[in-house]
Design a protein that fits this description.
Layout lengths: L12 H16 L3 E14 L3 E4 L2 E4 L1 E2 L6 E5 L1 E4 L2 H6 L6 E4 L19 H11 L5 E6 L22 E5 H7 L8 E5 L1 E15 L7 E5 L11 H18 L7 E5 L10 H13 L5 E5 L9 E6 L3 H11 L5 E3 L9 H4 L5 E6 L2 H5 L15 H17 L3
Parallel strand pairs: 6-7, 7-8, 8-9, 12-13, 12-14, 14-17, 15-16
Antiparallel strand pairs: 1-11, 2-3, 2-10, 4-9, 5-10, 11-13, 15-17
Helix pairs in contact: 5-10, 7-10
Amino acid sequence: MKVIAKERPVGTQENSMLINYLEKLFADMDYSTRSLPFNCLVWSKDNSTVNISGQKYDISPSPFSKPFSGAAQCIIVGSLDELKEADSRGKILILQNELTKTSMQPKDYPFYYPDEHREIINVLDNSGAIAILTVTGKHPIYELNPFYFFEDGNFILPSAYISVDVWKEIEPHLKGEDIKLHIGSRNDSATSYQLIARKAAKDAIRNIMVCAHMDSKYNTPAALDNAAGLALMIRTMDFLKDYKLDYNIEFIPFNSEEYFGATGELIYLEDCKQRGNAPDLVINMDSPGHFGSKIAVSSYNVDPDISRLLDSLSCNHQNISAGPEWYSGDHVIYSMKGVPSIAIASTDFYEGGLMYAHTQKDTLDTVDCNLLECGAKFLAEFLKSIIS
C-alpha cells in the first residue's frame, strides 16, 4: 500500500513509476502483460489572484484550466437563465448560487454527459467571455471546500474558483470598474500507458475482466480511492497466479478513471474490439476496505447462477456483505450496456467511504488492510468457482 498510496495523476512521474512497478509485478506473477500508450495532459499550477479596487485575493485555478492574465469588467450570474440572458462578450464571468452547486462533467465525457451540463458548456463556449471565476462551497459528496467547478482540459475558457466566504468579502467592492484576474495554470503534453495483465485458457469460451483504477486526482494520496482497490486486485492476482482457470481473465489497472478524458478506458475498449475479446463479466474494485466498514459487493445484470454463487460465498466470509448499487465507477461503462458486472467497495461507501476522497485526508489510516485481505480471498474463491 505504501508504494501505491501517493499522488499519481495520469502522466506524472509518480504515475509512470507505478506503471513500471505494476508491469514488473504482474510479469513476476507470470501473467502476460501489454502496455498501450496514449497521449495525455499533465497539469501544474502557480499563484493565482483576483485584484478588485486595489485589493488582491488568492484564488485557485481549475485543474487543466488554460492560463490567463488580464483585466475586464465582470458580470455575475447565478442560474442558467441568467447566463443565457447575460451579455458576456469581452467580460469575466462570475458564476455562483444555483449554477455552481455541483461540479461539471468534462466536456463531451464519453460515458456520462448530462444534457444540463452540455447546455451550460455550450452557452459558455459561445458567450464571448474571456475568463470565468466560480464561487463554490462544500462539494455535495466529498470534503472539498471550496470545490473546483471545472476539471476539463477540453474546456476552452480559462477558469478559477473561490470559496463562498471569500466571495462575501469581494462582492461589496465590485463597483463597475475592471477587475484583474491572473490564473496560473499550465498543461504539458505527455505519454502514459494502459496496462493489461492476462491469463489465457485453452479453448476458453468466456472472458472475465477484473479492474481497479490506479490513477488519482491531484493533491491527494488517494489511499482509499483507489490504492485500496488496486491492492485488493494485486492480492487476488497473487492468489490465482498458480491456479489453472478454464476461462480467459484480464486484470486491468485503469489509468484514467480520475482523468477528464477517460483515455485509458477508451483505449482498452478499442483494444478489446480489435481483438474480439470483449468481457462477458466485469468486476470492478473502487474504495474498498474503509475502516469500520465491510467489503460491499453489488451486482448488475448477472444471471441467477452468479447471483447465487455470490450469496453462497458471502455467507462464509463475515466481512463480506451485499452493498448498494452505485454508478460512478469503471463497472458502469459495461453495466449500462447490459454486461454482467460486479462492484466491490465499502459498505459505508456513501456515508463515510467517500468523505475524504479527492482530498489530502485520503491517507493510509483510512484503509483496513485486513479487510482487503478478506476481499481478495473472497474474490479468488469466486473466480475459482466460476465455470465456463
